[in-house]
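Tutorial sheet, problem 5. The two components below are modelled jointly, 521 residues in total.
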Amino acid sequence: MVQDRTASAADEAITDLYAAHYVRLVRMATLLQVSEAVAEEVVQDAFVALHRRWRRLRDPAAAVAYLRTSVVHGCRSVHRRRGVAARHPEEPPGHAPSAEQVAVGGAAADAVVAALRGLPDRQREALVLRYYGGLSESEIASAMKISNGAVKSHASRGLAGLRDAMAEWS
Amino acid sequence: MNTPEENWTPEERRLHDALERAAERVEPGPDGLARIRRRTAVVPIWRRPVVIGLAGATGLAAAVLVGGAIALNGSDDDTPVATTTSSSPASETPTTPPPATTPPADTTPPVQTLTVPVYYAADSGDGLRLTREFHTVETSLSPIAAAVHEMLAAPPADPDYATLWAPGAEVVAGEVGEGFIGVDLTGTPSLDATDSADLALQQLVYTATAAAANAGLDGSLPVRITVDGAPVERLFDAVDAAEPVGRADPLEVRQLVQINEPGEGATVSGPVDVQGEAAAFEANVLWELRRDGEVVDSGNTSTTECCTFAPFDLQLGDLEPGTYELVMSEDDPSGGEGRPPTSDSRTFTVE
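Model answer (structure tokens):
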């Protein structure tokens, strides 16, 4: 019955991790340029994968890192498979931002999202993980599976690329 | 987290703020955990949705996985209309091809999507009685065989329901023959722990006849069960099944209150419309709406006809977003003196 216990421990952990991180991970995925419906699917995939390997990974901190890494890689795969994704509806109508949300988000958010879209994938990832994810350099390095030095250079080049857009609302 | 936010430049802080505000516009759906749970639960391999790529066809796959939640247009005819009550991330509600147009399978049929009625059993106070769900499946089986297959192998969506058949039997074929519906099984039909042989037989009879009617075939025919092609003298070593068996009186074997819509675990947007059937004294059905275990509303509604299975339609109107449990039960005219009233419950989410 060891297996049962592991299974229910995994279920409980997934429930807790979901409550703490799901919404933010979905939002992070949308900043990584996938549609909302796809973002949810990518994050759900990450939770399902985590559940599957729960026995090999019990430390909660490692679990969160695993989720983040899965989401980054999930979004990369989506970009690679854009051809497939493009055949499906981009955005369900219910998920379009409401007038209130747009007003709250403001022009600054629009400008930065538009500018992010123009960046190379790695630069965008580094910026989103650092400035939205709140991750340290080494956490970003492990999520992106690159060196600390590479994180630094992607982030600084990304920031330079955004500078024009950001100057407009400073 | 060890982020050196205090060392950020004003430019970095503005970027952070802008990302936060952009991200806040994204409001994930309320059923993410349910979707994850459905995928981490142990599900027979053939029932898993076909995943096309990572993100391709996601809405569709989710909808097929959810399945099960189908509105009825009639009372007792097991005919679903083609609307699913479960929401999916895709903008279009996937529609199921109408099962009624499915041709009889005299050649090897291709894999198709079918919505089939499946009977289970539940005990809501008066001992075990039959309950029904609709399952949407991808199958190459005939509609009758697909429904029996679900009954034998697929877990019900409603946690209160269960099949009375132990694992070990599989369906080979289900076709309408000369004056009967033939269901051929293989393996060893056996009962689960409840040991309800008669009701287990009726579970199969109700499922097969409902599936036939649902596919536009004659669902009023009795069911002839064979195992590996041979007639069964004594099914489960307990009930006579050598001759075709018809449906028992629904008042005797069916759960007297049956909620059809919303389906278990469904997500509802807009006004909540509850539909189902009940065989109730004075056509009266009581309901109670609970949220986080507390009763938020209650009342009673009427079916269209007393004392036999008849449809009801309960309009709950607009509800605040959240997860609710609805319990509907018979009125108890005996004031607790007679048998306990039977009930059905649904958990659903309003977004």
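Marking note: Chain B touches chain A at residues 1-5, 11-12, 14-29, 32-33, 35-37, 39-40, 52-59, 62, 89-92, 269 (CB under 8 Å). Full credit if you identified this.
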